Automatic annotation (TrEMBL):
It comes from the Bacteria. InterPro entries: Cyt_c-like_dom, Cyt_c-like_dom_sf, Cyt_CIE. Residues 83-161 form the Cytochrome c domain. The chain crosses the membrane at residues 12-35. This is C-type cytochrome. It comes from Spiribacter onubensis. The lineage of its organism: Bacteria, Pseudomonadati, Pseudomonadota, Gammaproteobacteria, Chromatiales. The keyword Metal-binding applies. Keywords: Electron transport, Heme, Iron, Membrane, Metal-binding, Transmembrane, Transmembrane helix, Transport. It holds the Pfam family Cytochrome_CBB3.
Amino acid sequence: MSAEQDSVFVRNFALVIAGLVGVTILLIVIANSMFGDEDPARQELAEERAAANLERPFAVRLSGEPAPAIASAEDSADAGGVTEVRSGEQVTQAVCIACHQGNFLNAPGIGDTEGWSARIDKGWETLTINVVNGYGNMPAQGGAASEEEIRAAIEWMIEDQSGLEIPES
Ligand code: HEC
């Protein structure tokens, strides 16, 4: 390659780079004029979204705090919704059966009189709370069903299927 060819190449290369720098600056200027943070409405929206992103999707309840409201069919009906409360059998088939059939993680089986009789003395309230918040090997079920539905599922899974009777507590 001759010295002349070298200098032509260097000149062309410098022109291309200069052109690219020019295009970059132009794009930055256009982007700034379109999406600058000057707009207060845009700023407000961004802040709102950031706050929503920081909200916890679930809450850890410290003792003493009131229980968070779980969406119930009544609330939903008040709000004009059409949510139906599922029956105990439906909830069991949809949610609980994954473990309570086949003794997964040693979960007592549906209608397992022996397995349940050791637990039901805790009474309705404790059993319901344990299912909502989780207990031992059972993760919290509160996200999968409302408290009302969980009660119905307990009733179906234990009382209806085994003949045992859970005492009030
Ligand atoms: C991921 C598996 C899993 C799912 C899903 C599950 N359970 Fe359980 N459940 C368990 C296990 C395991 C235990 C035994 C926990 C222990 O004693 O360590 C248990 C225990 C229980 C108990 C007894 C709690 C106590 O205080 O002794 C009840 C009642 C119960 N489950 C009801 C339900 C209902 C109702 C559902 C559905 C809404 C459900 N479970 C869904 C695994 C599960």
